[in-house]
Amino acid sequence: METAHKRPNYILIWVYLAVLTAAELGLAFELPISRNWKLILLLFLAVWKAALVGLFFMHLKFERWNLRIMAVIPLPLAVIFILAGMSEHIW
Amino acid sequence: MTTVAATAQVAHGHHDDRPFIRKYIFSTDHKIIGIQFLFVSLFFLLVGGLLAMQMRWQLGFPGKPMPGGGILPETMAPGGVILPEYYIQLVTMHGTFMVFFAIMPLLVGVYANFLIPLKIGTHDMAFPRINMWSFWSAFAAGLVMLASLFVPEGAARAGWTMYAPLSARHDYSGAELGQELWSISIVLLGLSSILGSLNYITTVINNRAPGMTWFRMPLSVWALFITAILGILALPVLSGAAIMLLFDQILGTHFFDPPAGGQALLWQQWGHHMFVSGMNPTLGSSFMVSTLVIAVPSAVKTFNWMGTMWRGNLRFTVPMLNAVAFVAMFVIGGLSGIYMAATPVDMFIHDTYFIVAHLHYVLFGGSLFALFGAIPFWFPKMFGRLMSEPWGKIHFWLTFVFYNCTFFPMHILGMAGHMRRIYDPTQYDFLKPYQPMNEFISISAFLLFATQIIFFVNFWWSLKKGKPAGLNPWQDNGLEWTLPSPAPHGNWERVPTVYRGPYEFSSPQVPEDYLPQTRKLPGDREPAAVSAAH
Amino acid sequence: MKFTGTKPAMPKIDMSEEPKCKAKYTAAPPTEETVVVNPNGTLANVFVYVKSGLPASYKAPAPSGPVTLDQDGCRYHPHAFGIMVGQNLQIKNSDGILHNIKAKGTKNRPFNISQPTTMTSTRTFSAPEVMVPLECNVHGWMHAWLGVLPHAFYGVSGADGSFSITGLPPGTYTVEAWHEKYGTQTATVTVSGSETKTADFTFAGK
Amino acid sequence: MSWWLPLKGSTFAGEIDGLFIAILVITGIAFVIVEAGLIWFVVRYRARPGRKAFYTHGSTRAEVIWTAIPAVTMVALGLVSNHYWVQIKGRNSIPPNAYPIGIHAKQFEWQVTYPGPDGKLGTADDFTVRNQLHVPAGRPIVLALSSEDVIHSFFVPQFRVRQDVVPGMDIKAWFQATVPGTYELGCSQLCGLGHYRMRAQVFVHTPEEYDAWMKRAAQGEASE
Amino acid sequence: MTHAAATVDQMRPPYPAERGLDVYNTKLGMWVFLASEVMFFAALIGTYIILRFGAPGEWARPGIVLNIKITAFNTFLLICSSVSMVKAYAAIQDGDPKKMRFWLLLTILGGATFVGIQIYEYIHLIEHGFVPSGVREGSELAELVAKGTLPAATMGLYGSTFFTMTGFHGFHVTCGVISMTYLYLTKALPGKYTKQSYGGIETVGLYWHFVDLVWIILFTIVYLI
User: Fold this and answer.
1) CATH value at residue B373
2) Rounded to an integer, what distance in angstroms lies between the CA atom of residue B287 and that of residue B279?
3) pLDDT tens digits, residue range E155-198?
4) Residue B392 counted as domain residue
5) Span D13-89 CATH architecture
6) What is the largest CA-CA distance in chain C?
7) Which residues of B touch A88 (CB under 8 A)?
8) Tell me, what's the ipTM?
């Protein structure tokens, strides 16, 4: 019914993760850019890494849609929760 | 189709040869766990009630020695006179026991455990051992909470909502160990509820009997399923907050400590009804909208219940009486909630007895009447016997009358501006004229409490001497009524097959006015899974 | 206990919220008691105690009789006083209105108890501490100071400015005088046999 | 003992009471309809031998109707409430000429700081009085609320004003008293063992009386 | 459904599943549990963000209090243990229990080392005066606060949030190490995992990767920002 999946190259994912971590460190301590840019880039890298782990190591990329939904449901809630808390302090 | 090997574990059926301790104490049987929750939460209901009686004594007769209060230690009530610090402990622990250890476990712990596997047709929960742990951590939480009443400085005393920083710092509250035990207990209870919810969700998704489609699932299971989903998402947050509170108390962290930059309102981030807490007014408006939105489904529910009764054939058994009373009381609680949703009015009635009245109409009226209906209803399936109907009716009518005498006048007190959680209303000149009403409420409350003795006696008596119940004493359609009473360990030898929804009453297809979900009529198709597997 | 310099004016306490307390001051309105200068020019409420000099092995049993702290007219009586470790402190509410007693000690376990009506509560202290502040949060002006000591060699200057410490064994001692506003002063006193020695302290007002 | 709301002592008391009455009427009608319906059904459809219940799968039209009516009512109520809410607590609701009074709450007292004769807070002639709030009638008052320790709540029933006082936050609230007289200010958020006694007297003076009181009080004779 | 796909789909091999979601109970249960874990860490991280946004002043700059180098190594270690975990899973799917045991043991070692390094880090920090309530008086860090290198106003919050977040993560890693060791001893060594039955490995793997995922986020927001 669904397309067949081939096993991903886990070592390659591992290399990605290691390189991204090194990039984060370099970005945080060596790169002479403004704090806000650092913040955005660092968060972007962190989400990228987290997505790699979730999609490949935890196989979310290969699961059925209903299990994927289960994994994804709390994420928007968590984000809304954090944003609601932040909005308290921005007014 | 993949195999169904994992569900096909053979049920033990009637011959259950486990030792007593595995059968009734450290049991993994969902029914025993449900019954364990029932006994424990009824006990805490009693504890919470006793605490309420002491509060009502002080409010009705401020500063007078409480009858029998002499047995309390000097730190609580010297000479039987309740001290202010003991009073706020009573307030706190009454709320805590009732909400966390009586009503929540009675509604969820008891009936989710007992009913979900029976109603969806499976042998047990998906994770029976986790289920056992869920009960025992709730039990431990209860013990810790109970123990906190007896530590030297007394129990927690910041209200069951535990607003920080009153709850976070000992020098503000005057209690150290009591506050810490409260937090520990709540964390344990949170863990228990998460484990429970995990089980309910997995079981409902994965282990329904053949033919039990989502739309054939009884509403009670739906409600418990949705509650579990909300629980799995909300409880970790609450537990996290309780842990931070605990860290503030024992590690000296500063999460809720304003002088060190902490946020007092952090604790309340999750609460409703906080329009006056000093937050962003626009946020107040959006909260108002969300509260108003709750009113609409509540109204729809009420109309649906009435629609169910419309042109029905109502048999006034004890469960039915309580169910009708539940609707009637839920309406009052729901309507009084509208006052809170209108922010300017809420500003006035917030933290007054109006809220106390509303809370009790929702929690007592909305939950306890439902439970007083549910307990006799499923009593046969739990213990094989029926509870006494005449005593049940006496209990019902007395409860109904005294309940309204207790909680309805609180609306009037709230309109007068009577604050919540005050030890002695006569301190305020504007409240002195209301003392007769406070006395009336207190006396009604004592009578309401006394009435519950009837329930407890009926319960114990019926355990031993009740009329033996047949398979299906109420002529209901659910799967559980196809089992013997009490239901055996492992429930079914082989899981039943479901052919229709649970609410086929007075169906023209059969002469009886009920039609069990498992009864196969000519023309009913076998569910796909069954036809494939067998 | 001499007092020199200008006598600070003590602010009046407005007790109108507690008519029962207000009624107890018919002659003159109540004032705060931070600095009480006696008519003879001496300073009251100075706590004097033997700070050091006692042999390490010296041990005194706590007396069986209690020390009484009375709350009368929304003020503490006495305002500054001493107690021995393990001795009972009887806290008495003579006003019949709500008082709470918050002890904010650091070496002793703090407590915060309330007395909604005429009643007596008893507490003890487990460690020496000079001084333990006592306060009532319902009546913000109510303060008392309590010195907890392992021995009985302490006194408080009274309405004539004098104090006495009796029964000291022979030896050389450091005696400290403590006042809530003016701080501490020390003196060295040598006692030999059964004699009476005098130590004078002078606090200067600012 | 009154069975109704307390005296209307401030400008927005009338609006709040009006809203209260409106809700009372709406909920009253709903209450009567639902409870009468319940009783009618209970009597009319009680079990009788030989009769079977009516078999139905429900009616979509009925469901739509009984969803729409409460929804419309709620939205209308929400709009009206919000209108008043913005007037009472909105960010820009505080009248610019409001007379400032500082309220510092601590376990268990209200420390009221008056602006002194110059009418400004934060100047040398400010003075603080325990547990006594004096305000002139007919003039908007803006309270600057702060807390020493825990969350307290400023509540004067006759003014229909309540505002939580949160430690670490500076909160402003306003009201305008209308009826001279003596009232009580209570703490309505559990704040410790003396919570029930965290009470202050509220004196609403005529403007002339207030000026006279201010003169006396500024000289250190605050007591009534 | 599975007959044709089972032979080809390496990521969804046949496994005894339950009726409902076509996933076996333990795996579904773990996902539900992880959903609650997401909310728990969201609460912790949310609190951190709220407190940092609303803090009365600047937050201490990264690298002054905390030792970034050693934590960066720790991060790398956790990533390695994640990949060894997934290798163990792949090995047992291929029906090679020996290889599976090797990778699983490596994962346990990686996790244990992570915890060890974190304990070392905590001891080091506490010695320097960084404690959950802020900065200990009279310590090395207290001098930095006095000099103004560290902001006095926010150190209390910094200590509170740092120790709570990293502490709870460390607790999760410890739980993971304990359960993996338990499975290694009671299931993997006696050879109970086979090509047809490896639910324990997959489930504990999901947990382990989640813990790694959380650390990726925490490392960035606690140590780098």
Assistant:
1) 1.20.210.10
2) 11
3) 999 999 999 999 999 999 999 999 999 999 999 999 999 988 89
4) yes
5) Orthogonal Bundle (1.10)
6) 55
7) 265, 269, 279-280, 283
8) 0.92
